[in-house]
Amino acid sequence: MTNPPPLLAEDRPEYERLLAEALRDRTVLTALRAPGALTTDQLRIRALRDADAIAAAATTEYTHYTRLRETLRTTPPPPPDAEPTAPGLLTQLRSANGGAGLFPVLTVLTPILAWTAALALLLIGYLLRAANPDLTLARTLVTAGWVALAAGVAAMAIGIIGLVLTAIRDGGGAAPAGTDPELAAELADARREWRTALRDRGLLPYLHTHLPAVPADAPSDAPDFTSPGYTSPDFTSPGTVPTADYTSPDFTSPGTVPTPAPDFTAPGYTSPAFTSPDDVT
């Protein structure tokens, strides 16, 4: 398309959010750390200035998205008495003349009738049992009363489950007035496709063209211990650490200190005046 549509003002905030996500991309953050690269603010200002040129990379998806959005806005609302698109269980069981159907009537009347019958049967049965404990009719009425009470509880539980399922179904399939649920779902898919195309084909390529190229195998700050070419540093054991050429002083033990020996042949030498053991006092 030679003349792509400009980015509408209502889509500018979405473009800015996508730009913020693209600036946090891993490859962009790596390129921003390169020497001489632009700062994040400088890159954001340039991308905002060239928004129309960047959005042109997703022209096909954007045209489809805006067309669906305009169609959804111009769709007239359904008449007030129209049936919902996905009628619930109560609506499906409604009678032909517009009144309540069989299911709502049974949901309301069955517990009331069952509990009324249970109260009457239990009251009569226990009164008869008090009057004559051996009376078979009294035991039968009491048993029938408890069965009616259980039937009323079961009917109430079934009615509550039906109402909950109806509320969930109607709430999940309900759409705002004037919208078609199928068209709304198609619009959500078109918006998602436009966002993906704008990010992958527009924003990321634009940011990389204004940043230094970073090779795929660029070394990181931390060593990659799992890479095939990694070798550990050549550390040596403590016993092989080279030491200085040091010699210890020539010390000798005290027992080897040389002492002068007496010269028994010297002219002035006199022997000690030893006495015999008997002369020792």
List keywords for this structure.
mainly alpha, elongated, 281 residues, 9 helices
Note down, in words, how this protein is organized.
The protein has 281 residues and is mainly alpha-helical. The chain is elongated, with a radius of gyration of 50 Å. Residues 83-100, 171-177, 217-227 and 235-244 have low confidence and may be disordered. Among the domains are: 11-81 and 179-209, no CATH class; 89-173. Helix content is 54%, strand content 0%.
Q: What is the N-to-C order of secondary-structure elements (H for helix, E for strand)?
A: HHHHHHHHH
Number of strand elements: 0
Mean pLDDT: 74
Helix/strand-derived category reads mainly alpha
**Head-to-tail CA distance between termini:** 138 Å
Low-confidence stretches: 83-100, 171-177, 217-227, 235-244
DSSP summary: helix tally: 9
Q: Helical content, roughly?
A: 40-55%
Radius of gyration, CA atoms, in whole angstroms: 50 Å
Principal-axes shape call: elongated
Biggest sheet character: none
> What is the strand content?
under 5%
